[in-house]
């Protein structure tokens, strides 16, 4: 496997914590198949490091890659700074994470502790997610040499009205970029848009695109949530309640005249915009048709049983909610932005609308409400696309290629 530097890239469109050691195309519709060749796994041990404070796409990515690596017989060590939902779900997968101190004032002490853990486990490759993991792991290399791979999951999100947080966020991102370059980290992006955005930031480093992916899912293993009444046409939005996710656009679309009266919008997730969104629904007179369900662990049940998943985001990487909906065969309406626009084809695997276009969003909702055959066709085509190009097996093999190449380039024996 080759990496390229600069403007070129590879397009790939016993102890607590150690675990795992020891198609025919359907007829009809577009052909999404892509040949992949399984390669023998030589990597034996990999550590994955992240903050673990929140739970979203990054954390679902980590759970997926842990599962994929274990299936390849690779021992995995999960290093986190918070004992939160990610840690809990990792334990459900049989993985006991190592929880590190999370206060920044213990930077050197924690980095030294991290180095000792990696040395004891004989780990030479660490996959980091987020600036905090990058900084601590880069410092840990002072005491134990190892190679680093980093995944960039999304664009910086605006912090309008929060100047102190915005200034701190900018400082951390500058520090993250500088340390990533100094440590010679190999950087993976989940979309081409992210590659273009960070091109100058990580100029000279090995860079590549590896899309997020999910394992095959069976909608019939899900249970219908009681909130999704069978006499309603149920729309769902899943994700953090933040302005960039476009919840307000969905509420505005729901409030337009002429929409079917059986439409109900279910909002799953928590975030800083919840009070504002509730107020908007009340002001538009549709609070009885907009349901705030909060955080739900069994989110797949809602994705599987809603009629349509809405993703009216202002920008996106390659969200796991999208991939899970594709895997479950749920029809999707999405903004034509970022990773959504990169992998979805309008009228084939989803209905795409321009970002911020409330009228277009409403028209797409009406179209799918009135056309069950279109819903079925979009769901089937999206599911086939996910299974052939965005499967967990494909993503895992590509990361294994990255790990092996990085270690070979560094001249270290494969662990």
Please outline what is shown here.
With 415 residues, the protein is α/β, with parallel strands linked by helices.
Give the low-confidence spans: 1-17, 20-28, 31-38
% residues in beta strands:
15-25%
Radius of gyration: 22 Å
Secondary structure class reads alpha/beta
Number of helices: 14
Residue share in helix: 25-40%
The largest β sheet comes out as: 9 strands, mixed
What shape does the CA trace take? globular
Question: What is the ordering of alpha helices and beta strands?
Answer: EEEHEHEHEHEHEHEEHEHEHEHEHEHHH
- Tell me the span between the first and last alpha carbons: 18 Å
Mean of residue pLDDT values: 88
The tally of beta strands, per DSSP, is 15
Protein described:
With 415 residues, this protein is of the alpha/beta class. 39% of the residues lie in helices and 15% in strands. It contains 14 helices and 15 strands. The strands form two sheets. Strands 1, 2, 3, 4, 5, 6, 7, 8 and 9 form a nine-stranded mixed beta sheet that branches. A six-stranded parallel beta sheet has the order 12-11-10-13-14-15, sandwiched between helices. α4 (131-140) runs parallel beside α5 and α7 packs across α12. The longest helix has 20 residues, at 163-182. Mean pLDDT is 88; it is low at 1-17, 20-28 and 31-38.
